[in-house]
Amino acid sequence: MSPHDLGRIYRSEIEEQPAALERLLEHDAEIASIAAALQSRGPRLIRMVGHGSSDNAASYGVYAFGLLPHWTAMRDSITLTVHYDSPLDLSNSVAIGLSQSGRTPDVVEYLVRARRSGAFTIAITNDPASDLASAAEATIPLEAGSEQAVAATKTYTNTLAALVLLAAHLAGEGARIADGVRRAAEQMAESIPAFARDAEALALPFSYTGRMFVIGRGVEFATAREIALKLLETCRVAAEPLTATDLAHGPVAALDPLFPVWAIASPDATLPAVQEAAQRIRETGATVVASGTAAGAVQGVQYTLPVPAPDEPLLSPLLSVVPGQLFAGALARVRGLDPDAPHGLSKVTLAL
Amino acid sequence: MSPHDLGRIYRSEIEEQPAALERLLEHDAEIASIAAALQSRGPRLIRMVGHGSSDNAASYGVYAFGLLPHWTAMRDSITLTVHYDSPLDLSNSVAIGLSQSGRTPDVVEYLVRARRSGAFTIAITNDPASDLASAAEATIPLEAGSEQAVAATKTYTNTLAALVLLAAHLAGEGARIADGVRRAAEQMAESIPAFARDAEALALPFSYTGRMFVIGRGVEFATAREIALKLLETCRVAAEPLTATDLAHGPVAALDPLFPVWAIASPDATLPAVQEAAQRIRETGATVVASGTAAGAVQGVQYTLPVPAPDEPLLSPLLSVVPGQLFAGALARVRGLDPDAPHGLSKVTLAL
Hints:
Two copies of one chain form a homodimer. Chain A is an alpha/beta fold. Chain A has helices at residues 8-15, 17-25, 28-41, 53-67, 78-83, 105-116, 131-135, 154-170, 174-203, 221-235, 244-248, 271-283, 316-334, and strands spanning 45-49, 72-75, 93-98, 120-125, 138-141, 211-216, 238-243, 261-264, 288-292, 303-306. In chain A, α4 (53-67) packs antiparallel against α10 (221-235) and α10 runs parallel beside α13. The interface between A and B is large, with 72 and 72 residues.
């Protein structure tokens, strides 16, 4: 395989993301009716379960539900319900199972048990004929189209969008947020060529990097988790996601000039924490890459990957993950690795 | 400083852990009365907040409250309440602030806001005269004694014990669990010399390790997080904690013979997931260290660090973290690093 072919599918799926978001938006009325059904049941706790990129998207859901309808949403423990069989009362909850394949065994089993216990159950999956969809009362189809690369991209961004649209309808702000997602899809399409050029330019100086931290806080913590996972699975970089504040509680001690940090900055109330973390990182001599819609507000960094601001700060993660996806692909190619088929992984994970 | 002095305080604080647990147990009646007050208020959602080792202990709290009184407990987002000022309804909740110093700014502010919003607030801190304790309606004093090493040890294990005792009293099982904690403290005291010998022997072959995964699931996920944090802050190893299942969803692709994995196995319903993960790790050629109370049940590993089983499987994390604490100290010394004062860290983190 020539180096140019490495990650061809992964790269084309990144480029399909704007179109995938448009397809999801065609289901906005269905999402609105699921929100209405959910409102009438009156739960006040949202429990999200998933693994890998789906779990990363759930980190975003915490903020989408917290900031729009002001509901508490959590990434629930699958182990407690499925493995330990603990009789928690889930009857006043919404359980959302997240799985692009709809076949992740313990996520399906969690939803089966949550429904039996009286929770309102929702599947968010790319396969509306899957076991997960059958187990749930309601399904939001991701409509990302077939995803062939093992490293998820368009199913991740469509999961973010599905969660924020559901949250928006619960808050009576469906139309405004749907418009924002549509506009973010356009901005993404316009920005991908520049993002790709920046990512290619950055890959070479990072070609020998063995470890990285990826930091974000609030709405962008999901982005930090997802970029770290892309670097782990496609580039074999030991990349760890941290909140900007948790970095200061210990991990900053591990940094040195060979241990760079990717920092995602948003123009919101978390910006001072990210700026303060960047200052502490610089004191260790570590290289800092600033990305996100407030990348320019992080001073004294070696590399800046700017991201256009969407209509709503809450929608920034739809855009800010894309430079990281592209960087992972470019870095993998520099290292002769294939992001379409990382060694030891299969697309559908049937692990316990 | 001679190599023998490196980490002298850290090591002595590890050895103080059994006595620290005994001191906490003297406050069992106070913990019982906090549980009674909490029962009478009737909340059904526990929100825990903390950073670093305190947040790791909160991961254990999810299982302590889930398995004993069958209450839902979550690691809540501080950002949503403190930074984004989102008006979540916390009135039907218990908010538990975890901070050994009691001075972590956003944890204190979270508790102030949670109390104003009607939550029952509890501080778990080593300083009952701290801002955190003043902000809370009730305080559980950790009684770990002064902790001087920057890397937390005895405040971590006492936080685990405080959470499980509170959970046990909520379930009407206070006496049984208090006995179990007392017995675990004895087992810890008996085992530390053997743990230390094993840790010293393991440090040399790992002296050039730059990155590691630490895996656990269920009750031992907290242990995985805490051991990874010790390795990051004291040894500058890029150590990432993962659940056994999340490892299979991507990160396994990063493994190779120079990227070892520390696996914590418990003799409970999560054991098959840990065994399956160990099998997949071995296929990559990576070195596996099996630890935990079911270490012997993980086949074909290069190193085994056995841990005695406590009376209750739920109490295993009190013991299984200790070999990891000692390994981090031994590895730091081999590398000429001082676990008492890792570079760039201070004991009280006042970051945003």
